[in-house]
Specification:
The structure holds 2 protein chains of 2 kinds. Chain A is an all-beta fold. Helix content of chain A is 0%, strand content 54%. Chain A contains no helices and 11 strands. By secondary structure, chain B is an all-beta fold. In chain B, the strands form 2 sheets. In chain B, strands 2, 4, 5, 6, 9, 10 and 11 form a 7-stranded mixed sheet that branches. The interface between A and B is medium-sized, with 25 and 24 residues.
């Protein structure tokens, strides 16, 4: 079983739609969680952290369910520029130490 | 802006060749990382380093080695390239206390024939 699993998609949604991605992780000792974004043929970039209490940044909301070991990312009012691959990231060592484990990514395409 | 540069965007090598991939960062980051990215498998950590001359194995170190002689430079070495090492190689760096905030280079697409 992969440590971090994501639905690879692709998700094809119209502009203005709300879309949600889930990600599951297998190690219950995982401490910290993040979403990265990777545009086509570009490098990954940190999008946001995920906290137990939820985390909102504009149109993006990330949530963590430790009991079920899954992380979600919700995008409201999708824009064409949101088209990218979204990578779920988990670490055992908290935010300051250790290595990141990446999911394989979920592809989102937003069309006019 | 943080800048992470990699020596080549595209590289074609023959089986058995020794291959060097270079990565340089300009933000005085303590941590540096080498990943490979393959379709369906995502990013997988090969090696990382949290200080000069220090190195730690990642999830898939077999067939690779690394060198960090200077803080800003982290090299990935394929001692004897094989076709299953054809991949996109990404270097990243971060501050010691912020391992989750990694800055990636543009990647090197390596093809081994």
């Amino acid at each position: 079983r992969k440590e971090v699993e994501q639905d690879p998609g692709p998700f094809n949604v119209p502009e203005g739609a709300t879309v949600a991605f889930n990600c599951t992780y297998s190690n219950s000792a995982s401490q910290s969680f993040f979403w990265y974004r990777q545009d086509c043929r570009k490098e990954p970039k940190l999008l946001m952290s995920v906290y137990s209490s939820g985390n909102e940044d504009g149109r993006f909301t990330a949530q963590l369910n430790r009991a079920s070991q899954y992380i979600s990312l919700l995008i409201r009012d999708s824009k064409l520029s949101d088209s990218a691959t979204y990578l779920c990231v988990v670490t055992l060592g908290g935010t300051s130490y250790g290595k990141l484990t990446f999911g394989q990514g979920t592809i989102l395409t937003v069309h006019p | 802006d943080v800048k992470v540069t990699q020596s080549s965007r595209y590289l074609v090598k023959r089986t058995g060749e020794k291959v060097f991939l270079e990565c340089v960062q300009d933000m005085d980051h303590e941590n540096m990382f080498w990943y490979r990215q393959d379709p369906g498998l995502g990013l997988r950590l090969i090696y990382f380093s949290y200080d000069v001359k220090m190195k730690e194995k990642g999830d898939i170190p077999e067939g690779y080695s690394v060198s960090r002689e200077k803080k800003e430079r982290f090299s990935l070495i394929l001692e004897s390239a094989s076709t299953n090492q054809t991949s996109m190689y990404l270097c990243a760096s971060s501050f010691l206390g912020r391992v989750y905030e990694q800055y990636f280079g543009p990647g090197t697409r390596l093809t081994v024939t």
